């Protein structure tokens, strides 16, 4: 018998640590290879980590609530015929840091003074409530602070006429639902348009480093998915090389698995650009925070019918705001405007012939 180790995996770019949310197995349990053994959370994902081997869980190194660095040993597993990995020397890992709620400040006691009149309303204990911050919410908060501290955020907004895309989707959505078993959303339309715009504006699809700017000649599109208590950004790899139907299936699959906590670590890694469909939540304009280490994040806002002037006549059209936050170290206003021009033109001049199948 030998010991094999289960380590905290890399769970996304710029992620340096993860937190054990709960153990799905207890010490002494037999586990099969690839069977989920522990659930871990970061600011990017809540994922079940599978066992790398078949054997017995003999020692849990990090209890639930413990936060450790990527690569730290989470548990030891006894495996028949395996070399004893636990016997090999390793750099000591930082001890788990339990997450504790913020403490209320301590104030010195004061001598009670009887009120002249009875106090109105319920006591302070009834008007205020301390809510414990979840592990994933705490890590999201820390990631947002790091992003704003890292990148000087600039912001831009465009009004876009989405008549052609709306009319096509309305005509096709029932047939699409029958053929594929899930609704046809606007997201795959916008992914194809954004991918084309990124090809012509590569600095929007890049990363800042101390050595220089790394241009990505491929598009791994992050899709922001809102959960009840978190925001997850799974990634469609090589989105620029996928056809429309494949993109629609990928969006639906990732969204469903994000909501059921079934994402794998690789599902949230490697993103080069993020598309945030805030319109699904009813938003009409907002400023998103960049998903590090990317250069920009584009939000498609709610589609609303509005009066607009077309060839000196007032007509009613479905209008959508595009909002984009971008890293001002990499992109200036001119580059951002050219990219938004390309996206706007791609949407307003869209036709069925534009579909890449």
Number of helices: 6
The third-level CATH topology of the largest domain is Chloramphenicol Acetyltransferase
| CATH A-level architecture of the largest domain | 2-Layer Sandwich
**Total domains:** 2
Please provide the count of β strands: 18
Structural class: alpha+beta
Task: Give an account of the 3D structure.
This protein is about 25% helix and about 30% strand. The protein has about 350 residues and is of the alpha+beta class. It has 2 domains: about 1-85, OB fold (Dihydrolipoamide Acetyltransferase, E2P); about 140-350, Chloramphenicol acetyltransferase-like domain (Chloramphenicol Acetyltransferase, 2-Layer Sandwich). The strands form 5 sheets. It has a 6-stranded mixed beta sheet. The chain is elongated, with a radius of gyration of 25 Å.
Name some characteristics of this structure.
single chain, 4-stranded antiparallel β-sheet, alpha+beta, 357 residues, 6-stranded mixed β-sheet, OB fold (Dihydrolipoamide Acetyltransferase, E2P), Chloramphenicol Acetyltransferase
Short summary:
The protein has helices at residues 124-127, 135-150, 163-180, 187-200, 244-259, 333-348; strands at 2-7, 17-23, 30-31, 36-41, 46-50, 55-60, 67-69, 73-79, 153-161, 206-208, 213-215, 221-223, 225-227, 230-232, 235-236, 273-276, 296-310, 313-327. It is an alpha+beta fold.
Q: What's the layout of helices and strands?
A:
Elements: E1 2-7, E2 17-23, E3 30-31, E4 36-41, E5 46-50, E6 55-60, E7 67-69, E8 73-79, H1 124-127, H2 135-150, E9 153-161, H3 163-180, H4 187-200, E10 206-208, E11 213-215, E12 221-223, E13 225-227, E14 230-232, E15 235-236, H5 244-259, E16 273-276, E17 296-310, E18 313-327, H6 333-348
Parallel strand pairs: 12-16, 16-17
Antiparallel strand pairs: 1-8, 2-4, 2-7, 3-6, 4-5, 6-8, 9-18, 10-11, 12-15, 13-14, 17-18
Helix pairs in contact: 4-5, 4-6
């Amino acid at each position: 018998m030998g010991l094999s180790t289960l380590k905290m995996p890399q769970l996304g770019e710029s992620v340096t640590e993860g937190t054990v949310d709960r153990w799905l197995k207890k010490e002494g349990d037999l586990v099969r290879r690839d069977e989920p053994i522990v659930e871990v959370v970061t600011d990017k994902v809540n994922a079940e980590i599978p066992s790398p081997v078949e054997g017995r869980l003999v020692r849990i190194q990090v209890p639930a609530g413990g936060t450790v660095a990527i690569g730290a040993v989470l548990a030891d597993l006894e495996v028949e015929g395996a070399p004893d990995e636990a016997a090999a020397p390793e750099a000591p890992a930082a001890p788990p840091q339990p997450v504790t709620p913020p403490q209320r400040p301590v104030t010195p006691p004061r001598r009670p003074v009887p009120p002249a009149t009875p106090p109105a309303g319920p006591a302070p204990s009834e008007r205020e409530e301390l809510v414990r911050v979840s592990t994933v919410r705490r890590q999201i908060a820390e990631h947002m602070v790091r992003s704003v501290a890292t990148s000087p955020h600039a912001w831009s907004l465009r009004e876009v006429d989405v008549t052609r895309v709306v009319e096509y989707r309305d005509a096709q959505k029932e047939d699409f639902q029958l053929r594929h078993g899930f609704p046809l959303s606007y997201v795959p339309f916008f992914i194809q348009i954004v991918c084309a715009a990124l090809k012509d504006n590569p600095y929007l699809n890049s990363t800042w480093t101390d050595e220089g700017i790394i241009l990505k000649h491929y598009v791994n599109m992050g899709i922001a998915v809102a959960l009840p208590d978190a925001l997850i950004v799974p990634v469609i790899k090589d989105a620029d090389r996928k056809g429309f139907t494949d993109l629609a299936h990928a969006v639906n699959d990732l969204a469903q698995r994000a909501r059921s906590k079934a994402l794998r670590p690789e599902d949230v890694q490697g993103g080069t650009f993020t598309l945030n469909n805030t319109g699904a939540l009813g938003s009409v304009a907002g400023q998103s925070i960049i998903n590090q280490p990317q250069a920009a994040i584009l939000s498609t806002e709610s589609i609303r019918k509005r009066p607009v002037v077309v060839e000196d006549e007032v007509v009613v059209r479905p209008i959508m705001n595009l909002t984009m936050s971008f890293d001002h170290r990499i992109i200036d206003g001119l580059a951002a405007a050219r990219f938004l021009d390309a996206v706007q033109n791609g949407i307003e001049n869209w036709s069925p012939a534009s579909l890449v199948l």
